[in-house]
Design brief:
The protein is mainly beta. The protein is built from no helices and eleven strands. Helix content is 0%, strand content 52%. Strand 7 and strand 8 form a beta hairpin.
Length: 122
């Protein structure tokens, strides 16, 4: 079982930036898809972005397209989420997840981190 540990969350001003990291222990197979989801208070968990482990193909939610960028460091088993031009509505707990399908459906992901809090203040 691969353990996922997120870091990099915190509090930032409206318009600011943060970079989240997700460190995976153990081997990530080339067929894996790594994703970020988020959950705001009182809301359902929602898809943010994903990246294929072997090809670097990416997908973004419309709400973050052009502001967030997902990337990875294969040798070190790390996935990043660079978040720019943050807005108060980006406030949420951000989760890293691993799956095997190129999908924005959280049901396709079977490995989850514990999450890291991102708070954007206006």
């Amino acid at each position: 079982q691969v353990e996922l540990v997120e870091s990099g969350g915190g509090s930032v001003q409206d318009g600011g930036s943060l970079r989240l990291s997700c460190k995976a222990s153990g081997r990530i197979y080339s067929s894996s898809v790594m994703a970020w989801f988020r959950q705001a208070p009182g809301k359902e968990r929602e898809f943010v972005s994903l990246i294929r482990w072997h090809s670097s193909s990416t997908l973004y939610a419309e709400s973050v397209k052009g502001r967030f960028a997902i990337s990875k460091d294969n040798p070190n088993n790390v996935v990043y989420l660079q978040m720019n031009k943050l807005k108060p509505e980006d406030t949420a707990v951000y989760f890293c997840a691993r799956g095997s399908q190129y999908s924005n459906n959280q049901r396709e992901y079977y490995n989850w981190g514990q999450g890291t809090q991102v708070t954007v203040v206006s």
